[in-house]
Fold this protein.
Amino acid sequence: MDLTLSPSEQQFRDEVRDWIEANHPGPEPEAGLEEVMAFRREWQLKMHAAGWAGISWPKEYGGRGATMIEQAIFVGEASRLEAPSPANVLGLAMGGPVVIAHGTDAQKQRYLEPILTGEEIWCQGFSEPESGSDLASLKTKAVKDGDEWVVTGQKVWTTFAQYAKWCMLVARTDPDAPKHKGLTYFLMDMEQDGVEAKPLVQITGEGEFNEVFMNEARIPEANVIGEVGDGWSVAITTLMNERAGLAFGAIAQVANNLKRLGALAAETRVNGGTAAEDPVYRQRIAQLHIEAETMRLNAYRGLTKTMQSGIPGPEGSLGKWQWADINQRIAELALDIEGAYAPLARGAEHAAAGGAWQYSFLRSRANSIEGGTTDILKNIIAERVLGLPRMR
Amino acid sequence: MYFDLTDEQQAIKATARDFLAARYKSARIRELADSENGFEQSDWEEMAELGWPGLALPEQWGGQGLGIVELGVLFEEMGYALAPSPLFSNTIAGLALALCGSDEQRERFLRPLATGQLRGTPALWDAGSPATPGGSTMEAREDGDGIVLDGEKVLVMDAATADFFLVATSDGRRHLVEREDSGVTVTPEASIDLTRRLSSIRFEGVKVAAANSLPGDGADYYAVFFRLCVALAAESTGIAQRTMEMAIEYAKDRQQFGRPIGAYQAVSHRCAQMLLETENARSAVYGAAWAADAEPESLPLAASMAKAYASDAGWRVPDASIQVHGGIGFTWEHDLHFFLKRGKANAAMFGDAKWHRDRVADAVLVEAAEPVSV
């Protein structure tokens, strides 16, 4: 057992840290998604120029071929130092890895480089209004017409669809096959008449996600990833990639939020002292720190296990569940500490901490829903880790 | 970076699992629970042959010279098996002598303790006190060459069968008192935990020669305290692991409304929660145990985190397991209650979850005063 970084890992961490500190462009613009995207595009170009975009990708495809521990270190440092997100986060984390794993040589040649540079933004068309947790029940259909597929249907929760060139689309190509078998994975060009993206305003008031409507959208045959009818297993690879990359970034983000929570407690007056002296708040703050530490240690145990077995196991579901729970409780506690000032949001003169916690409180409601609801994660743990009988 | 047990540590775990499973079947635990001393001397002698009393004690004094990680591995198994044994109390006495005793005291007490020939136990808490660290009120009254002790210690583990006690006084020191010394009276107390004996000890004019007072003072014992917290948290983790397994097995087996109850999410999600708490406890324990061996400056915070978390998990998981079992789980006939009781007693000892969380708050709220990077 050794919880320290090896000398080479330490050297890698220092290299990452130095580079981010030297190139950090400061906080993201607060107003306007357009400005944010321009800011992130510029950041991604910088990352790419220094070889940090797609660090998990093999070197032959323009990546860095980083080991799992190096990826964890990079994501952890970037998150700890609050570096911006690259513009093409879904292309880097999911699109590229899927093309590398399942794509043809021609597809690799065509798609990978513009993902790395951020020239082409990617989005993900999986969820539908009637297919959330039960993803395999999705209804968007693709019908063969000559050497093209014609797609009709609706997707939802599509992050950055309004900026995307390519959509990772899962559609039903065989309505008669069992529900997991009749799906195919496509790359759909978003810049065509048959595709319309409408922002979906969420409870924070922002339009981070979109609805995407497809009305006889056309996809050339050459844009099928993997085999026709094999879309489910291709999609699962993407989701595994999404989850594996997130843990260490989430851990560093929670650590930063806990520091801010401590600062808020230290400056907030309650009952003749500060919130940091209040016995009830102290207990809650301590419990969150303890759970955040167990999450961090669980992730390292998981990483050790994954490095030995080669694939992330279903235990990763524990970490996602725990992260959502902790992140939500941090924001809830912050609002409790703010007391009567809790309603005051960004822009209000007397808002505590500039209204940041009001945004966190609202945004974190999605944490237990996005990327696998907590309820579904518990099912996965029950069935695949504990071996309990399936409920269906 | 390698956060898992090594092959050697796995071997210790496997040996402990097999040894304890063979000895502590349900009927045997019940027999020992009803017995006067709560454990069997022959079991103790077998554990001594395996080197367990001296597992984490220096080889120089007859111990195995292993670390707190190995100790944690062993105590997780003690909890898993619900082993009734003075091993825990004896381990604390051993660590105190190893870390804070004089060589002469180590020769006389530690060496035989490490090989199982003598047993010791700490007598820390004064009757009527909150029984948390740092608050001893018993006075070490100077008397000629040594001191005299008067008062009553409570919640002393395995006192009736220990050979000697390490008695805490208000000056922060510890003193070696033998059970047979004049003026010492041990009175067994009733505890909800039937697998560990608790007693009170009256001290009436008990003389302690200067040579029997340990040279260490108050602050030195924190090194002992945090290590014992890790061992106890490990034991509670084992309790959680075992009772979670019992719940899962039952949920697969027990049929209601025509299907196994584990197919219902009300039950299966409760089991998932048990796994979360058990794995969190285990990570916190391993992390703190590693800190004790490799990074002692981070031990105090890590140990308080582990003890706080495992205190809760160590009784909440058995409690949830009882709920999964339904009516049968509430019967004396079922073993679950023994686990719940041991877990709850462990949670209360050596600083409960609230006490340790308060220490965590002290540590992290000082850190919070530093600015966030960038």
